[in-house]
């Protein structure tokens, strides 16, 4: 796992308004808002519809603005708030195992047919601090999303 996050996830109840506010405050531009439409299952069995999100094109630490459905782990009741810090990992399963041994709880992932985590994982501490680990295999797709011409 890298030691520097590559994005900070911020949940908001109004994606467009948050984009406008942060564009003005930080001078950033955004990828087009979108969602893959997937429905994830949390380790507690809850259904988690994939949220709509957009990413600041500027970095090196990007802002990932997220608007989730009410009741999902991405729902934002009230003001925008920090949701997670995201890190690339070359060993998703190994980092999950190490962090859970240190007291973190696996909250959400995309399991393969055998139930092993793939693509990404959210891990959360008892105090609510959340990490997102993303498999290095997704880095090219992430960088291509930042380069697309369409902008919001």
What is the topology, as strand order, of the major beta sheet? 4-5-1-6-9-8-7
Shape: globular
N-to-C order of helices and strands: EHEEEEEHEEEH
Structural class by SSE content: alpha+beta
Cα Rg: 15 Å
Largest sheet: 7 strands, mixed
Number of strands: 9
Number of helices: 3
Q: What is the straight-line distance between the termini?
A: 31 Å
Enumerate the spans where pLDDT stays under 50 for 5 or more consecutive residues: none
Strand content: 25-35%
At a glance:
The chain is α+β, with helices and mostly antiparallel strands.
Structure, described:
With 152 residues, the protein is α+β, with helices and mostly antiparallel strands. 20% of the residues lie in helices and 34% in strands. The chain contains three helices and nine strands. The strands form two sheets. The protein has a seven-stranded mixed β-sheet, with helices on one face. A hairpin with a 6-residue loop joins strand 4 and strand 5. It is globular. The termini are far apart.
């Amino acid at each position: 796992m890298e030691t520097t996050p590559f994005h900070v996830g911020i949940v908001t109840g109004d994606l467009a308004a948050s984009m406008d506010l942060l564009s003005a405050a930080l001078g950033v531009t955004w990828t087009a808002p979108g969602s893959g439409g997937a429905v994830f299952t949390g380790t507690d069995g809850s259904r988690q519809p994939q949220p709509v999100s957009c990413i600041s094109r500027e970095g090196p630490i990007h802002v990932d603005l997220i608007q989730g459905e009410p009741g999902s782990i991405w729902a934002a009741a009230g003001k925008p708030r920090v949701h997670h810090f995201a890190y690339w990992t070359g060993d998703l399963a190994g980092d999950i195992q190490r962090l859970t041994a240190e007291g973190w709880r696996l909250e959400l992932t995309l399991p393969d047919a055998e139930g092993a985590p793939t693509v990404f994982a959210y891990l959360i501490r008892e105090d609510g601090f959340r990490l997102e680990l993303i498999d290095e295999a997704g880095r090219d797709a992430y960088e291509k999303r930042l380069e697309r011409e369409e902008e919001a």
